[in-house]
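This protein record is not my work; I was only asked to verify it. Where you disagree with what is written, explain briefly why. This is what I was given:
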Amino acid sequence: MNIYRIERETNSELRKLGRDFINTYHSYIKWSDRPARKLYWNLYENDNMVGVFALSNVFDKPKAVKEFMTKYKLNSNEIANNIVYCLANCKNKNAGTIFLKLCRQDAIKWWYERYGDILKAFQTFILPPRTGAVYKADNWVQIGITAGQSQITRTISKTEYENNRDYYVKKGVKLQVYKNGEVRYLLHEFKETDKKLIFMKLNSDKEINKLLQNTNIII
C-alpha cells in the first residue's frame, strides 16, 4: 500500500528541495521566483519525494479566461494558477491524480490562511502534445487555447524617447508617472510563444465550506 503526503514549503530548506527537484525533473520549466502570490508543496510517496506542486496569481489575459470569470462572477484574487506540477519516479500510475486532489484541497485552506481570500477556482496551462489527462481525471475542463503570444514590456529612456518621438508614438509608448515622481516610458510588445491548452476547475461551495468549516466562513 502506497502512502501519499504533501508538505507546504514554509522555510528555505523546503524551498530548496522543491527548487532542486523542479530544475532536475521538469521537462520544460525551470524554477524561478515570482513577485506575486505563490504557494509551493513538496510531494511524497512512501516518504520519497516524487514531486512539486505550485500556485500563483491567475493569468486572466486570454479571452476564454475572461469569459469564464464573467460567467461565474469570479475575481482575480479568487483564482489560483497552477504554475508548476512536476512528478518523477512515482510507483503508482494514478499518483498524479491523487496528489492533485490533495494539493487542491489544501490550497483552499492555505490560500485563505495566507491571503484571506476564498479560492473559488483553479487554472493551468498545458503545453501540447501533453493533453492534461491528470487534470481531466480530477474534473478540470479545457476552456480554450492561448493565442501563442505573450506581452513583454520594455522601458525606454527619456533621451531615447525624445530622439525618436515619432517612432515611439506610433509604437504606442505609454508615459508612466510613479508616486515618487519617477517618469518612465513603457513600450508593450508581443512575442510569439507556444500555444497552450487552458484548463479551469471550479470549487464547489460545499467543498469550500467543508474545508473552511473552522474559520467561520460560509459561502
